[in-house]
Design goal:
Helix content is about 30%, strand content about 20%. It contains five helices and eleven strands.
């Protein structure tokens, strides 16, 4: 797996007409499409990645007691963290991507495999991947962590909104159980939003690839801390 930068520009949604990479459902052994196969060219459709942390970063920085890092140190830590995550998550169907110019690291858990349909229970086969993420977050403590949940289009809008929130919370709870400070974590569910990725299956049906969670790691500099304290 190779890290890729998300380009925060562009317009159209994308329909994919074939499959080129798969991951294995840890419960059933079934091969499913991994979003790793799709690549970073879709970044322009991901409007929710624009902007800062959920709820604003100032109060969260103060609440989490973050110390921040000097600019040069922060840049090296960012490079080290994204490289180490990429290596640790190799072969697990997880994307590790750079957002902007060292603005954030995005860890994308694969569609349709991390959760069963209609469920917010994390498949046990992805505990190891989340353990690697948790260890990285503990090793590099000067960051805020936003966890985003999504669903496919099965079911009502209200049900899917609630389910997406539960999925994001389940991942945040797991990270916290492994020692990541809850004060660094925030969650948001997007329901069926951003359900633009579809793969045509063997029977010709376009299958949505939206049953996923994404973890956005936002590095905090010393300047960020100073600005938060001044507010």
């Amino acid at each position: 797996m190779k890290t890729s930068r998300i380009l925060l520009s562009g317009t159209a949604a994308l329909a994919l007409l074939g499959t080129s990479a798969c991951v294995t459902d840890p419960n059933t052994g079934e091969q499913k499409v991994s979003r790793t196969a799709i690549g970073a060219g879709l970044g322009g459709t991901l409007g929710y990645l624009l902007g800062g942390a959920i709820g604003g970063d100032a109060a969260r920085i103060i609440g989490a007691g973050l110390g921040g890092s000097a600019g040069a140190v922060l840049g090296k830590q960012f490079d080290d963290q994204i490289r180490e995550l990429d290596e640790e998550l190799q072969g697990q169907g997880v994307d590790v991507e750079e957002v902007g110019d060292q603005e954030a690291i995005l860890v994308r858990l694969p569609d349709g495999v991390t959760f069963a349909s209609g469920s917010a229970n994390i498949n046990r086969g992805f505990y190891d991947a989340l353990d690697s993420v948790a260890n990285s977050l503990i090793q590099y403590p000067n960051s805020l962590i936003d966890v985003y949940g999504f669903t496919d289009t099965t079911g009502s809008d209200a049900l899917n909104q609630r389910l997406s929130e539960q999925r994001a919370q389940a991942v945040a709870d797991y990270l916290a159980s492994k020692g990541v400070a809850r004060s660094r974590l925030a969650t948001r569910g997007y329901g069926e939003s951003y359900d633009y990725l579809r793969i045509k299956t063997a029977d010709g049906v376009a299958e949505p690839l939206n049953r996923r969670v994404e973890i956005k790691i936002i590095p905090i500099s010393q300047d960020d801390v100073n600005n938060a304290r001044a507010q």
